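Private note to self, pasted from the team thread so I don't lose it. Backbone tokens:
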């Protein structure tokens, strides 16, 4: 898979791409991440990428020409992108499902805005989609682009050592993950649950299912509406909800 990130701050991308699973995936050729300096696609002496907004108001806006030129240069390299993503707080919310969708693509371009945002003709006439990483405003699209690259790369076959770990984790079936522990078995009077030390695999599996449901019910109950639950989990959830009802003094 290939990503092309277009930014005025290429160096911002060095850290997140330079360590850990993402770095190893790049080294192994599982993913190719190319970072382009938007200013290389300007034509004036000052290499300007922004201008004042029509109609007045604060701040500066990214001009359309350099972004169109940057994408045309990427296309001229011979690969037609499957998606051209504009990062924006106004986009569709990026999620694990969106990461999985992008991970099935071959070539994704991500455009990183700055300042007050990007001339709307980029959204309308260049980008194929607009994605937001959450309901807050950042200073630029680089962190969102890197969040997307990170979430997608770990889904690519061979990127994460243990394939199973990406199948059982948070959100993969619409539930939060179960709690995990390692040695020592007791730390500052806090003990690891007995069942995990018992060696009873069936009981451990049931405990993990129940704890994943318990956490999801406590913290993100709205996820349960779309979660894929088997019959054992539906029964566990029914009992957990009864327990919670009892805690609040209802029948
Ligand atoms: N005035 C704009 C915000 C501009 S923030 C507005 O209210 O919509 C500057 C740039 O940062 C944006 O162009 C976008 O590329 C990026 N950005 C900021 N917050 C983001 C978020 N939550 N998700 C994705 N990109 C974001």
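Design output:
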């Amino acid at each position: 898979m290939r990503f092309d990130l277009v930014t005025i701050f290429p160096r911002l991308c060095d850290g997140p791409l330079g360590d850990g699973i993402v770095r190893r995936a790049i080294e192994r050729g599982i993913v190719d991440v190319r970072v382009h300096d938007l200013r290389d696609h300007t034509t004036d002496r000052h290499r300007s990428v922004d201008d004042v907004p029509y109609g007045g108001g604060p701040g500066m806006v990214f001009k359309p020409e350099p972004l169109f030129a940057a994408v045309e240069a990427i296309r001229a390299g011979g690969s037609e992108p499957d998606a051209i993503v504009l990062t924006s707080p106004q986009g569709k919310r990026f999620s694990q499902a969106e990461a999985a969708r992008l991970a099935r693509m071959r070539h994704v371009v991500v455009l990183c805005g700055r300042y007050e945002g990007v001339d709307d003709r980029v959204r309308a006439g260049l980008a194929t989609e607009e994605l937001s990483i959450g309901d807050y405003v950042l200073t630029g699209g680089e962190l969102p682009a890197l969040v997307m690259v990170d979430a997608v790369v770990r889904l690519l076959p061979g990127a994460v050592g243990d394939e199973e770990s990406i199948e059982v984790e948070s959100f993969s079936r619409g539930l939060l993950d179960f709690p995990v522990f390692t040695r020592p078995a007791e730390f500052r009077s806090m003990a690891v649950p007995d069942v995990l030390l018992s060696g009873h695999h069936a009981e451990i599996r049931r405990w993990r299912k129940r704890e994943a449901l318990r956490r999801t019910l406590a913290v993100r109950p709205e996820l349960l509406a779309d979660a894929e639950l088997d019959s054992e989990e539906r029964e566990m959830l029914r009992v957990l909800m009864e327990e919670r009802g009892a805690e609040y003094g209802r029948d």
